[in-house]
Write a structure and sequence with these properties.
The complex is a heterodimer of chains A (109) and B (116). Chain A has no helices and 11 strands. In chain A, strands 2, 4, 5, 9, 10 and 11 form a 6-stranded mixed beta sheet that branches. Chain A has a 5-stranded antiparallel beta sheet with strand order 1-3-8-7-6, with no helix packed on it. The model of chain A has no long low-confidence stretch (mean pLDDT 94). Chain A is mainly beta and 109 residues long. Chain A is globular. Chain B is mainly β and 116 residues long. Classes of the chains: A mainly beta (109), B mainly beta (116).
């Protein structure tokens, strides 16, 4: 069965302390891997789509990478405003979307 | 509009009552998705539409849930005879097919349904 697993569940960083979030997936034909940011009480905000192994995308302090089994969201020198839950989702060959449970990131000043 | 709008923001229903949620997709987007988010951020896909046609309804508990997207009206998700386990945040997302053939979904703020 297709599934997405994110780790860690929660991550506490000091401002400026770089780290990575992991998204492992099992999918019947990957048609896209998506990263979202979700702030409390709000809907997910689209960040990136990755399609094939080796692909990378960057936006400000965030960089997403993709292999055949997992994706990483690297956060370089995070700031308190980067605190949020980061969600990973995949789309399979049948156009079905599966979401992970998210990583709750807390960046302390 | 440039944002997905969902109403109401919060809905409280007694067990057994009906609940109806609304979603106005981004103008120009032809795909609408409904998700249920329960504890620990678990997102469950419910149903998707391409314009007014059902695209995928494999996630819908059909005995009590129904949804529509009619022309010139907000899309709706209706739950007949709500149960306690229906308490969740319901998100709507809209999307346009990208030139690469993908769906970059833009989410609304959600409707929090509380069944008491």
């Amino acid at each position: 069965e297709d599934q997405v697993t994110q780790s860690p569940e929660a991550l506490r960083l000091q401002e400026g302390e770089s780290s990575s979030l992991n998204c492992s997936y099992t999918v019947s034909g990957l048609r896209g891997l998506f990263w979202y940011r979700q702030d409390p009480g709000k809907g997910p905000e689209f960040l990136f789509t990755l399609y094939s192994a080796g692909e990378e995308k960057e936006k400000e302090r965030l960089k997403a990478t993709l292999t055949k089994k997992e994706s990483f969201l690297h956060i370089t020198a995070p700031k308190p405003e980067d605190s949020a839950t980061y969600l990973c989702a995949v789309r399979n060959n049948f156009n079905k979307f599966y979401f992970g449970s998210g990583t709750k990131l807390n960046v302390k000043p | 509009g440039e944002e997905v709008a969902q109403t109401p923001k919060h809905l409280v229903r007694g067990e057994g009552q009906k609940a109806k949620l609304y979603c106005a997709p981004i103008k120009g987007h032809s795909y609408v998705f409904w998700y249920q988010q329960v504890l620990k951020n678990e997102f469950k896909f419910l149903i998707s539409f391409q314009n007014e046609n059902v695209f995928d309804e494999t996630g819908m508990p059909k005995e009590r849930f129904s949804a529509k997207c009619l022309p010139n009206s907000p899309c709706s998700l209706e739950i007949q005879a709500t149960k306690l386990e229906d308490s969740a945040v319901y998100f709507c997302a809209s999307s346009q097919l990208t030139p690469g053939g993908d769906y970059e979904q833009y989410f609304g703020p959600g409707t929090r349904l509380t069944v008491t």
